[in-house]
Specification:
By secondary structure, the chain is mainly α. It has helices spanning 16-20, 24-38, 43-54, 60-69, 78-101, 112-115, 118-138, 142-164, 173-196, 204-228, 231-234, 240-243, 249-254, 260-271, 277-289, 292-310, 318-331; strands spanning 105-106, 109-110. The chain has one domain (16-331): Farnesyl Diphosphate Synthase, CATH 1.10.600.10. The model is unreliable at 6-10 (pLDDT under 50).
Length: 335
């Protein structure tokens, strides 16, 4: 083990800017490449694209791709376009998710569906996907195309898994892990795998596995944060998953040990079209008291250790060290 996961009670804080330091200049190039890819001679598209590029967030997926490409210090120039494609695919999935969920805020900014319309949101998500795939095809590498088109399918399957859950409170931990593997881990895994294909192909499988396990840990940590964080941290209102009737690991872990009155409170929330702040707060307290948050955190730490193990075969380069630090960053995103 490389020591990336800090011992309990003594976490080492890691800032994203430190993880990004080895690839900082290339990240700036990725943003320019994103603008080039989505450019269109149509005012509506330009307006929505401009808003979306403001919402692009922390560029975590492009960072992983760039770092993966440099794990043997021999990255090729295709990785900049690849990283832009990955972030545009991620943005497209968020645009579609926000429309499906009727979300009003994302990363502290109005969503496309709230600022424009659901019709514009759906069409714009499709536009981002198609432009990203055009840029990917232009790289002329069918292996990259195969990996990322498979991810596009997984993202869609993940959304359908969520919509198909008719009885939300019967959603099992297995159901949850299949969902987050498709909706989150698949893209982080692909970022690391395709990044490796642009400079560190000998480590493709190790980096694919690292990205997958990191993605699982990332989503568990994100779902915990929805119970423990605030809008200033998450970019969306605290408790928004419960407000949207989404069952995540903290609640799944708590349900078997809740009292009859606790179950009744949860069922009441899920049967209320627009739960109140008091209902949200009550269920968050019930989940915390039942140990659901702690149990979810332990599962996330298991995924983090598996991600760390996947890095063991990589050479000791600055990029590898940054990938190890990314595990700490994922598990401690409270500020």
């Amino acid at each position: 083990m490389s020591g990336a996961v800090a011992p309990a009670g003594a976490p080492r804080a890691v800032a994203l800017r430190d993880i990004q330091a080895p690839v900082r200049e290339r990240l700036d190039d990725v943003v320019d490449e994103m603008r080039r890819i989505v450019a269109a001679d149509l005012p509506m598209i330009e307006q929505v694209s401009g808003h979306l590029l403001q919402m692009r967030g922390k560029m975590f997926r492009p960072t992983l791709a760039l770092l993966a490409s440099e794990t043997t210090e021999s990255a090729d120039e295709r990785v900049v376009t690849l990283a832009a494609v990955l972030e545009l695919m991620h943005l497209a999935s968020l645009v579609h998710d926000d429309s499906v969920d009727h979300s009003a805020m994302r990363r502290g900014l109005p969503t496309v569906n709230s600022l424009f319309s659901h019709q514009v949101s759906v069409i714009m998500g499709d536009f981002l996907y198609s432009r990203a795939l055009e840029a990917l095809v232009a790289l002329g590498d069918m292996n990259l195309v195969r990996v990322l088109t498979a991810v596009s399918t997984q993202l869609t399957i993940g959304e359908m898994r969520q919509l198909a859950a008719m009885d939300a409170l019967a959603f099992s931990e297995r159901d949850y892990e299949l969902l987050i593997q498709a909706k989150t881990a698949s893209l982080l895994s692909a970022a690391c795998e395709t990044g490796a294909m642009c400079g560190a192909s000998g480590h493709r499988e190790a980096l694919r596995h690292y990205g997958e396990r990191l993605g699982m840990a990332f989503q568990v940590a994100d779902d915990i944060l929805d119970y423990t964080g605030s809008a200033s941290v998450t970019g969306k209102p605290s408790g928004s998953d419960l407000r949207e009737h989404k069952v995540t690991l903290p609640l799944i872990a708590a349900l078997p040990v809740l009292s009859a009155s606790g179950i009744e409170s949860v069922e009441s929330l899920f049967s209320t079209e627009s739960p109140t702040d008091d209902q949200i707060a009550d269920v968050i307290a019930l989940v915390a008291d039942a140990g659901g948050i702690d149990q979810a955190r332990r599962r996330g730490e298991e995924f983090a250790r598996e991600a760390e193990d996947a890095l063991d075969s990589l050479p000791a380069t600055p990029a590898r060290a940054a990938l190890a630090d990314a595990i700490l960053y994922v598990m401690d995103r409270h500020s």
